[in-house]
Prior knowledge:
Elements: H1 3-27, E1 50-55, E2 69-76, E3 82-92, E4 95-106, E5 111-118, E6 126-133, E7 138-145, E8 153-155, E9 165-170, H2 177-183, E10 196-199, E11 218-224, H3 233-244, E12 248-252, E13 278-280, E14 284-286, H4 290-297, H5 306-312, E15 359-360, E16 375-376, E17 406-408, E18 411-413, H6 415-419, E19 423-425, E20 441-442, E21 444-449, E22 452-457, H7 470-481, H8 486-491, H9 513-527, H10 535-563, H11 569-592, E23 596-607, E24 621-631, E25 636-638, E26 648-651, E27 672-677, E28 702-705, E29 708-710, E30 715-724, E31 729-734, E32 743-751, E33 755-763, E34 766-778, E35 787-796, H12 801-807, H13 844-856, E36 869-877, E37 889-902
Parallel strand pairs: 4-27, 7-8, 9-10, 9-11, 11-12, 12-22, 15-16, 23-37
Antiparallel strand pairs: 1-2, 2-5, 3-4, 3-6, 6-7, 13-18, 14-17, 18-20, 19-21, 21-22, 23-24, 24-30, 25-29, 26-30, 27-28, 31-32, 32-35, 33-34, 33-36, 34-35, 36-37
Helix pairs in contact: 2-7, 4-7, 10-11
Amino acid sequence: MSGTFRGVLLLILLLLGGGTIAKSSSAQQSPDSANAGPGNGASASDDAPRFFVTFGPGGNYVLWPNRWGPITITLTCGAKPFSGSIVIDFTQDGKPGGLVQRPVSCTPGRTTTIPVMVNPGRGCRHVGVTLQDQMGRRVNRKIFDSMASGPDQYALGPLTDTSSVAVMGVGEPTGAARSVTQAISPTRGYSAFGTTQVVTPGDDGSQLVTAWTGYDSLLILSVDAEVFSKVDPRAVAAIREWVSGGGRLVLFVNQPGSAWREWFGTRNDSTDVSEGLFSVDEASGGPVPAELAGEMHKPLRSVITDQERALHNFTPDGSGTAAPNAPAPDPAGPPASANDPDPPAPSNDEEPLEDPAPIYATGETVGPTDVSHPLVMPPEDESEFPAESEKAGPAQVLLPAVSDDLSRRLIRLTDDGIRAGWKARWALDTSESGSGGTTKEGLLAEGPYGFGWVVVVGVDPNLATAIQSPQAICAIWTSIAVNALADWNNQFTAVKAKGPTPIVPDPSLAGPETESAMAKVSVMERLAKVPTLGDGVFYALAAALFGLALLLGPIDAMLLRRLRARQWSWATSLMWIVLASVAAMFIPTMLRSGSTKLNRVSVIDMIASTSADGKRVTAPLAWRTSYTGVYASSTGERAFTSDSPGVWWRSVSAQTYSAYYNANEKKSGRVTASVQMLPDFSSLDPSDQWAGMSMSSDRSDGNRLTPTMFKVWTFRTFTDQARERPIIDAMLTPVEGSTSREWSLRLTGVPEAAKIRNLSVKLASVWHEAKLETQVVDIVPGSASSRTTRNATLVPKTAAGPLDELWAPVTPTYVNPLYPIWNQGYGSKDPAKVPGYLLSLPGPDRRGMVIDRFFANARAGGDGRSREWAVVYLELTNMPCDVKFGDDTEYSHEVVMRILVHVGAAGSDILIPAGNAETNTPGGEADRNGTDTLPAGHDDPGGNP
């Protein structure tokens, strides 16, 4: 064997060996094998700390897809102090994607609770929890997987689920778990998908998390106001922040005391925010008011009963695949332990319950009955409810004698509270009414707090009847939640059947996630703008192939013949192929090298602080939800930098995950690592009205991405949420001397380079088209970019259809549960050109209820909506990017904004032009009477906005 041949063979072996070593080195860095200690997840010694894991709020296994929620680590320290970190890795959108690290420490003999917020998207079936010391060495590890096997592996059901929702109750008046479960089902009398989980993290609230993301997966939070003294002030601030961003809070103030004031925060002048909205009288005894008694008498359907589940094959997860006689577990029962490797299997030996004959009350006081055997009262006029109507069936719930000495606290609204959109219900017989017949006092008051909704209740639902009745409690809770969950109920309208049906809609194909999945398609269409290859790459590849043919053919033959070495043609051919391959690899990269492209789309909801008369009416508030797409022109580690405090980043898949089609697929994905910090006590800021949490850039809390590896020619997407300081302000003023009541719009703080693509205003349900007139450049000392003031005149639109279509969120006209969403989507519309579609993204969708239903569509007073506010819809392009990524990066930033603007009493004089289309509004269809229009065959209980 010649020396040349041996040299070539040695080179090949070295290349193969180097690749094997590199592969082995990279494998050591995987989360499952890095810094492996003795055993798979076993403690290094008996003195090492151990931990216990629970999932979801209160450990109930439920996280709403694409929303944040806690995984709680209960850490028990060993004999020595410990300092290190918790690392949680999980699948995201059906593939590897997320890794969150949070520093932890503990002292000997103490137990520490560490909540870690995760947002696994959809299809999370694997979670790994690793405890590391300060040197990064593994101390303990547990794996939770849907296909668990082996030591330290535990079974995990789907962590994210659209068929189950969670409510959290803290304190006594929240009611029995079953009652809350029944009440939170859609309040139009229909059953929701699956079951509703009830979370009770301690009656004193001591386990409430201290970040707003810990409540993002909750449908509603119910709190006894008097537990305030036992709650971490950071948790109170986090709840306020969550509510201001679209959360729903039920606050019970029935007990003596004034702790209820603390839940609303303070203004800059140190006065309580609640003072400008309402006041609460001292507790006094008295009978149940007639309005509340009437709520308890309304026809009510409970959640899916055991009989219905057996008849229609319902299962606890809503999949509809159980045996016909399989009994359903109690939805209020305790969840299975997350760390139990072999949870007991449910028994199917029980006989199905017989359909009980209705028992009619005779007017005498009767004792409570089981929920599955409710007493019903016959309707006064049975012909009023034919058998095929929606009101047929259990027409009346059991109502024992109402209490004649109910402890109650009357809630009185202020004039400012009424103008802000607050409304009182459950009025006493002697209650005072405001202008337009608006009730100014009652045992229940509710209204917006920022972009969220607060319900203040002055009675205990458990004590409304002389004998505690689950049915009465359920009816009261239904009335409590009817407005707070108005948008939630509307999500199910399209898939509700007129009567019982054996077809159970698959939440992976239809239901509440349909709108957000369609909105995700819209935002991805805007982000996926990457440079094209161009003609140069084609010519370079063609030249390389042509050159290879020349080298292998005539050039190789002539050279070898001249050198009389034609026996080495195999070696020269290999050499030419290697050279051509190297050229084909690097030439396109050089031709395509250039700037990295970062595209960003933001949806900002904002409350302007200045009224039409120039007075400050509220503290400014702005919430932002952004999506970022990065096209990398070169390989390397990069990091996002932002001055915004409290930003919660995560990666997001550009593909839509379907539990039906993708559940068993093995997908590859690049892990995105992040470091998480929760607010410390230095973050508290009493001067901040909306949360009591500092807006300073010194805050380091949130979920921030660590430097991430980007491969050349790859496109990756991320999303982040934060509460921010508003950068743009808006003011609406009536034009003086105008006989047609024209309005003028002034936008201040708009960047000079920004371009307005779409601008519309909605006042009292009337669309106005804004026509830009002037632009004034503002000199901002110390600012790198100039700001401008844009002035526009509003013109009422007699035909509002085009603007409705432009700004309406994704609202499919019909959702067929048997077909996936891509078969019933946008029609002929380009999703990248309809800004309203972005309003259905997670975050803006919750904030939209207050904006669209209670302000944009307000009409005459008395319906709980304020006509003193208008909504400015704004789409901007060429905005400066609020995220930095590197010196060689080209930025593109599009912003869609909704701005609530106070117009004052002049809003009551807004004229509705003849022929103005007031239907198909972003908040839902509405008729001229100010009530939402339901599809045929659907009844609307009273009190719905």
